[in-house]
Amino acid sequence: MSALRARLLFELGAAVYRGDDEATERARGQVRELDELAAQREAEMQGTLAQAQDRLQRHRLEVQPTEMVELPDEPGQGDPSGPAVIPEPYPPPDEGTPPEPAIIPEPGPLAPDEGPQEGRLRV
């Protein structure tokens, strides 16, 4: 088509150069028809390509290995009509030790006279 279009454009240019209005219009019409035909063929090719790609994708899905999916065992997980399962906070509010503020100044090693001494009772 591109070779035919090039020849028609050459004829159009020659007709314009000669000043032949009738040949110019005829050549323009032929170029326009060829351009429309090329656009139509391009659209057909794109449609065929899209169909082929769709078929390839479907066939690829057919030959893929099967993947196992495990269904949830917990009640309410698989049944959307059941009540929603809300996880409990961790640790529960009545268990665990809450953090305490830091002791300032932080305790250091005991001085020799402050340590426990044998034989003496503190009262």
Key descriptive features of the protein:
single chain, 0% strand, 2 helices, 123 residues, mainly alpha, elongated
Number of strands: 0
Oligomer: single chain
Instruction: Give me the number of helical elements.
Output: 2
In this structure, how is the largest beta sheet organized?
A: none
Nearest-angstrom radius of gyration? Answer: 45 Å
Which range does the strand content fall in? under 5%
Helix content bin:
40-55%
The computed structural class is: mainly alpha
Give an account of the 3D structure.
This protein is elongated. The relative contact order is 0.05. The chain contains two helices and no strands. With 123 residues, it is mainly α. The model has no long low-confidence stretch (mean pLDDT 79).
Quick summary of this structure?
By secondary structure, this protein is mostly helical. The chain is 49% helix and 0% strand.
SSE arrangement:
Blueprint: H1 2-18, H2 21-63
